[in-house]
Amino acid sequence: MRTATVIALLSAAFSTTALAREPLTAAEQAAGWKSLSEPTAWRGYKQEKLPGQGWVVKDGEFRQAPPGGGDIETTQQFGDFEFCCSFKLDDKANSGIMWRVVDKHDTAWQTGPEYQLLEDHTYQGAQPGQMCGALYDLYPPAEGKKLNPAGQWNEARIRLGSGIIRQYLNGGKTVEARIFAEDGKPTREWLDKIAASKFKAYDGFGLQAKGAIALQDHGGGVAFKDLKVRDPSAPMPGEIALFNGKDLSGWKAIVPEAEKAGIKPESVWEVKDGILICKGNPVGYIRTDKDYTNYVLKLEWRFNPVTKKAGNSGVLLRMVGEDKVWPKSVEAQLQSGSAGDFWNIDEFKMTTEPSRLNGRNTKKTHGNENPVGEWNEYEIIVDHGTVTLKVNGEVLNEATEVEELAGKICLQSEGAEIQFRNIRLVEIK
């Protein structure tokens, strides 16, 4: 995997101009992404600045080259994080991306678990847990992964949130495992994995609450570009809270059958311990008082954690026109097992993938919900003519040519108890 690295002294081998990448889009910035292409974002392991030798920058790429300069790590530390980059491997190249690294032992890998980078096609002798896309020596990559040949660019993504580590290679998931419980303590499975590996010899390996992201120097032959990171649990820049955790301020309840049932529309909803609870009956929705056009919307939802009863609901986007069941809008589905579906309500102008379109419904590409009763996160990007649906960090659907207009955001009451929290929004400017 790696040998102890000798950290070289610094020199002026890096420049801001050389490292410039394509700027982050307005939507990426709104969603909290930060570029890691600047020299000031990195330093050598146990050093204050970048190593001068061993890392060459050309055409915006970080490339490793002999005689080696040691691992580099971000100057910023992260607990939960989402990291993306492009990487290119030469024949027989071996490297890795480590996370929650702290300057504790001789090398970065002795505290930080590793997303393995390996040129599988030409490298000989690697075990399954050492192949590209693995969580090195702990979890092998899933079958069916796509690794481009040597000399071609690949995309890597790592997301650690809510105690779950997920790794992706060229858009396909290679690893998913719950390694920390909700209280932040390591799971028994994670502890057992570490105990059965060589990493058991290094105090604190894989157990740090936060740490740096590191790029490994393992003899050269690998290049990186378009590096970016965000904390998925942190506030987005300039975000506004749509739900204050106390009451329905900023929302209006629309429940047409409420009068017949002899109840107030807002009584279908209650707030308890900072959680917005929808009883589910009668059917209807709450909508924002304000209109929004282009934005990144994040919210968490779960169905009743005690009964674990599956149910139905949805998030209505760019809702316009009269209040009724159901108003003209684009629906991001929340029905159990179908989160990530689109529903087109009242012939809203939009285009989706024809192969997954059935009437008004466009099926998601795949499922990514947590078990019923556990919290899930929706990240909904409404960016001019494009609407993207992410469930627990994975893109499940996208609509294009969506009519761009200002409208309400609605949460449905649709027959079952559902709970919401952390409803927040950043407008895309």
Short synopsis of the structure:
The chain has 429 residues and is mainly beta. The protein has helices at 16-19, 26-30, 188-195, 258-261; strands at 34-35, 42-44, 55-58, 61-64, 72-74, 81-89, 94-101, 114-118, 153-161, 164-169, 172-178, 212-215, 222-230, 240-241, 251-254, 269-272, 275-278, 284-288, 295-303, 314-320, 328-333, 342-345, 357-358, 361-362, 376-383, 386-391, 394-399, 408-413, 418-427.
CATH class of the largest domain: Mainly Beta
- Distance between the amino and carboxyl termini: 45 Å
DSSP E strands, number: 29
Radius of gyration: 24 Å
The fold-level CATH name of the largest domain is: Jelly Rolls
CATH-assigned homologous superfamily of the largest domain: Exo-inulinase, domain 1
Query: Number of folding domains?
Result: 2
Low-pLDDT residue spans: 1-21
Q: Tell me the number of helical segments per DSSP (H or I, 4 or more residues long).
A: 4
Can you name the CATH architecture of the largest domain?
Sandwich
Helix content: under 10%
Query: What is the global morphology?
Result: elongated
Mean pLDDT: 92
> How much of the polypeptide forms β-strand, as a percent range?
35-45%
Q: What structural class is derived from the secondary structure elements?
A: mainly beta
Main β-sheet: number of strands, strand sense, barrel status?
8 strands, antiparallel
